[in-house]
Queue: 2 jobs
Job 1
Amino acid sequence: MKKDLQNEFLSTITHEIRTPLTSIKGFSQTLQDNWDKINDEQKKKFIKIIEEQSERLIKLIENVLNVAKIDSDGENIVLKKVNLNQVVKKAIELTKINHKGHFFETNFTGRELLTLADTDFCEQILLNILENACKYSPKNSTVKISTGTKENNVFVEIADQGEGIEKKQLPKIFDKFYRADNYLTSKTQGSGLGLYIAQNLAQKMNGKIEVKSPAENGTGTSFALYLPLFEIEDFTRRDM
Ligand SMILES: Nc1ncnc2c1ncn2[C@@H]1O[C@H](COP(=O)(O)OP(=O)(O)OP(=O)(O)O)[C@@H](O)[C@H]1O
Ligand SMILES: [Mg+2]
């Protein structure tokens, strides 16, 4: 990494770490100093904030470690046969835990949709995209997930019913630390690393991520992960 980029990275990280830590320290102190003056409801509220900010720190550290891994040269990954449908199912189950207010609709192609990839990388990519789909779309809306093949690729597409991304911001969303400047990002937390990590991991597996906003049906946003097709085993062949 170049020196100025390194400095920029460090100052962003420092800021990202200091904000939640200041809040954790502040709320713990308030709780200690005013324990007998505040009611249970307020106490719960403060503890919840401490928990959320701790979560934010944990996620940031995981993301920074992921970035460090991506940036380190010479990391050789071994690609293995992966059934994309299976990884997608697992990623949806994990996303549901933290996003109970959303509905998930799936449309899988084939029983086994095989690609040469790294299961952990695929899971990380899908978790980042699914998390965004929920974070930037209203509660009670539906996230649609479909898998299939296109030319020599397998793909998984994740479409949300959110407000979408402004055209001029679209080319920047995969940049390190980039967050669009709008009310959606102001009311959510994030470090702008999720898509940077996702795109880099996809490229390491000879794949790519494409974004459409508005999505094909005219609203929301869709992200598609493409990976090289290995083989598809469909229902008809199995039933023969
Ligand atoms: N589904 C989406 N709908 C609308 N905007 C989106 C969507 N996905 C991403 N974005 C925009 O792209 C930006 C970059 O996304 P990215 O996942 O990299 O970062 P983040 O979600 O802000 O933080 P992090 O993922 O590191 O917690 C977001 O801040 C948001 O502005
Ligand atoms: Mg994100």
Job 2
Amino acid sequence: MGKDGPGAGAEGSTRAVKPPPDRLYGRSRGHKLRPRQEVLLDVTLERLRFRTEDAGAPAWLPELWIEIGFGGGEHALAQATTHPNAGLIACEVFENGICSLLARLVPEGGEATAPLPANLKLWPDDGRVLLRLLPDTCVDRLFLLFPDPWPKMRHAKRRFVHPDLVPEVARVLKPGATWRVASDDPTYQAWVTEVMGAQTAFSVAEPAVQRPEGWPATRYEAKALQAGRRPMYWVFTRR
Ligand SMILES: C[S@@+](CC[C@H](N)C(=O)[O-])C[C@H]1O[C@@H](n2cnc3c(N)ncnc32)[C@H](O)[C@@H]1O
């Protein structure tokens, strides 16, 4: 990532920020894919893909959960394993991350045939696009764990927590549904506090500074802790 990438330099204020574009920044492809990764994307991903035509009636289990930016998939897989009654749609744009999750699910040679979790589907695309396709009040839980911080103010429009996207998140969540957000970046932490403090669709509790029970750890979080950064963990409840 270059010096202007999501991990760079500082500051934030929600005032005078342009609306988020329907455009992705950051990487969607890293190093060249290995043959096994190509098969995972061509074959296994197709078996798990959440299809656009299902977006009008998206729930296939008693609860519908969504994770935005699952990274290597540690959290998504742990949640899917411990909550069989929740159908989780996990979104990620970075191909190597998608391969990482798929590689944990199927052994080599089992890409087309190995059993897959019945409560997990993948959206290998921008999570904002998925949200816009969904009907009102259909989601029980939304996870946004360690989103790219885009710490420079001129990149604030790229942040997922954004005054223009909060109404869209509120629209798809059921009353009483929860939105979990975690961040280790001080600029993003201040930004979340400001953005969520200025809206009325969610009730806002004080963030925890230790990972709460029932929040499986992620790879990014482990790196942040190792580097001495201090994550905050919020739960926003849809009114
Ligand atoms: C800093 S990483 C954190 C990954 C993971 N949640 C973790 O904690 O290890 C943020 C991830 O969000 C993904 N991402 C960013 N914007 C996204 C979007 N609009 N839709 C889906 N994924 C997105 C990036 O590709 C990246 O893998």
